[in-house]
Amino acid sequence: MTQSSACTQAQRDQAIAWLLRLRETPTDPALRQAFTAWLTADPAHPDAYREAEAQWAWMEPFTRQSFAARDAALRYRAARNDVRRRRPAIWATAATVLLGLGWAVFSPQGWYGWSSTYSAGKGQRLTVTLSDDSHLELNTDTEVRVRYNRNRR
Questions:
Q1: Looking at the structure, do residues 16 and 70 belong to the same domain, yes or no?
Q2: Where are the alpha helices (DSSP H) in the chain?
Q3: Which pTM value belongs to this model?
Q4: Considering 53, 75, 97, which residue would you say is the last residue of a domain?
Q5: How far from the centroid of its chain's Cα atoms is residue 64's Cα?
Q6: Which residues contact 55 (CB under 8 A, 6 or more apart)?
Q7: Domain that includes residue 44, residue range
Q8: 130 part of a folded domain
Q9: pLDDT tens digits, the chain, 153 residues: what are they?
Q10: Which of 38, 41, 71, 126 could form a disulfide with 120 if both were Cys (CB 3.0 to 4.6 A apart)?
Q11: Roughly how many angstroms between the first and final C-alpha of the chain, as a whole number?
Q12: Does 96 fall in a domain?
């Protein structure tokens, strides 16, 4: 079978796609109308479609024959690798759990909370208003670390 030089490979591919669509739903009027529009859009399209039909007709007898390579191809089922397909979901779940635990432990309201350090140098006095509106007075050469969480300060 020789291919005509008037048709490009893209036109042949389009013709094959049209052939398959028309064989799948031959009575669809909208599809028929779109196909007719495609055929008239370029003078090479009818030639490309005739080539596709000829190739299909040439291959048709092979569908009824049985030979080892065809039978093996029809029986072939790719091995399902569920772990590989689920791997992104597993990582996303692990990241979500770790993020949630981190937020629960280290957030201001969490178990560990936030800590702040206040200090006064030698000869200084310092009054600090904490976030719960309590006051802390530091005298000379002192340091205090305050840690808040949801249960206590």
A1: yes
A2: 9-24, 29-41, 44-59, 68-75, 82-106
A3: 0.42
A4: 75
A5: 40
A6: 1
A7: 9-75
A8: yes
A9: 444 457 899 999 999 999 999 999 888 999 999 999 999 999 999 999 999 999 999 988 877 777 788 778 878 777 666 667 778 888 899 999 999 888 777 666 666 666 778 888 888 898 988 877 888 899 888 998 887 666 665
A10: 126
A11: 87
A12: no
